[in-house]
Design a protein that fits this description.
The protein is of the alpha/beta class and 353 residues long. The protein has a domain of 242 residues: Rossmann fold, CATH 3.40.50.720. Strands 3-2-1-4-5-6-11 form a 7-stranded parallel β-sheet, with helices on both faces. A two-stranded parallel sheet has the order 7-10. A two-stranded parallel ribbon has the order 8-13. Strand 5, helix 5 and strand 6 form a beta-alpha-beta unit. Helix 1 crosses helix 7, helix 4 runs parallel beside helix 5 and helix 6 packs parallel to helix 8. It binds nicotinamide-adenine-dinucleotide and 2'deoxy-thymidine-5'-diphospho-alpha-D-glucose. 2'deoxy-thymidine-5'-diphospho-alpha-D-glucose binds next to helix 6 and strand 8. GO terms for molecular function: dTDP-glucose 4,6-dehydratase activity.
Length: 353
């Protein structure tokens, strides 16, 4: 097989950086170019391990700037694109939707336009668009999302991701672009930005801060370890069918209170000075339009591509807690910057009773 030359958009974020680790750790015959705007969520520390590796290259680039996209990428050798770059946090999309439309819709559009030029030169093998199960809306107690579930997004974030999914689909049907979309459930693991439920709870436990649980804590998410997700994306890029979509999940539904309690129990063991951490749980105002339940049916990727997750939840959540305990400088730097201002603001705006 010829060398893979993968362009990773949003590769300095949570899942994108894990994807870079997955690929570079498993293959010599590959080169990766990460493009990233380095928003509040992008962090070059996530990629530090590779900075002197000849297989790795980083370009600071805003995908919402079409001129910049075309100019900065014109001389980069690319055979595959893994498109992760997005605004990703639902609460932020409620407080300020505009960036979500710009990046997730217009940014994806420019990346597709750029990909079309590679396709015209017969250089592009695949454009993998990373999307979310939130485009399908909210489930009640039964059932699970399949690839044919109708779209029904409820937040500005999920609506913007749905918009990009539709554009990707259209570029297959209209221009024959070799696209594939993956829709996955909630990820967790190393490098997870501390605004999201799992890292937020771990870090608040460590700081003795309240653990804000929205509403009653009964909302359900289907938790996917980021390393399993990245292996699945790589599999889809190599063996998926163009024009298709694949759901990725590991049948691992938990309600939010179960997640918070599990983290508290792990923290009691690993940070006994703060025990019992459950005393920090604080029920706060619910998220507006809060989707009740997500659940992925991964039968298609399992049967058609033979995908199986490698990790069990119990070991992966403990690994995640350990990662945060072992990487204090990483999160201390984030918590001491602008993020803290946002957190206090969000806490006041969205979370207070
Ligand atoms: P993240 O917020 O951690 O990272 C996003 C990255 O995109 C950051 O590095 C950021 O700097 C970059 N970025 C943002 N705007 C940009 C722009 N205009 N130009 C260039 N780069 C830009 O997000 P994540 O959790 O790693 O999510 C990655 C992708 O996976 C997103 O498309 C998201 O919708 C999707 N997804 C995430 C989850 C999850 O649980 N985190 C689940 C399903 C799907
Ligand atoms: O389902 C996939 C999606 O998962 C991705 O597309 C998104 O990019 C990703 O951010 C995530 O969205 P969620 O809104 O599900 O994740 P979040 O971690 O923000 O919240 C998870 C659940 O926890 C949700 O029901 C809201 C709740 N929550 C969240 C926070 C931050 C709380 O109860 N308290 C909190 O402080």
């Amino acid at each position: 097989m010829k060398q893979r030359k993968i362009l990773v958009t949003g590769g300095a974020g949570f899942i994108g950086s894990n994807f870079v680790h997955t690929i570079l750790e498993s293959s010599e015959d590959v080169s990766i170019t990460v493009v990233d705007k380095l928003t509040y969520a992008g962090n070059l520390k996530n990629l530090e391990k590779w900075k002197n590796d000849p297989r790795f290259n980083f370009i600071k680039l805003d995908i919402t700037d079409k001129t910049e996209v075309f100019a900065k990428l014109q001389n980069v050798a690319i055979t595959e694109i893994a498109h992760f770059a997005a605004e990703s946090h639902v609460d932020r999309s409620i407080l300020g939707p505009e960036e979500f439309i710009k990046t997730n819709v217009m940014g994806s559009f420019y990346m597709l336009e750029f990909a079309r030029t590679l396709h015209a030169k017969k250089e592009l093998k695949v454009f993998l668009h990373v999307s979310t199960d939130e485009v399908f809306g909210s489930l009640s107690a039964d059932g699970a999302f399949t690839e044919t579930t109708p779209y029904s997004p409820n937040s500005p974030y999920s609506a913007s991701k749905a918009g990009s999914d539709h554009l990707v689909r259209a570029y297959f049907h209209t221009y024959g672009l070799p696209v594939i979309t993956t829709n996955c459930s909630n990820n967790y693991g190393p490098f997870h930005f501390p605004e999201k439920l799992i890292p937020l709870m771990i870090l608040n436990c460590l700081q003795g801060k309240p653990l804000p649980v929205y509403g009653t804590g009964e909302n359900i998410r289907d938790w996917l370890f980021v390393k399993d997700h990245c292996l699945a994306i790589d599999l889809v890029m190599r063996e998926g069918k163009f024009g298709e979509t694949y759901n990725i999940g590991t049948r691992n539904e938990k309600n939010n209170l179960e997640i918070v309690h599990r983290i508290c129990e792990l923290m009691d063991k690993k940070n006994p000075n703060g025990a019992p951490h459950k005393k920090l749980v604080q029920f706060v105002k619910d998220r507006p339009g809060h989707d009740f339940r997500y659940a992925i049916d991964p039968a298609k990727i399992e049967t058609e591509l033979g995908w199986k997750p490698k990790y069990q939840f119990d070991e992966a959540i403990e690994q995640t807690v350990d990662w945060f305990l072992e990487n204090k400088p990483w999160w201390e730097e984030i918590l001491s910057g602008d993020y803290n201002k946002y957190y206090e603001f969000q806490y006041k705006e969205l979370n207070s009773k």
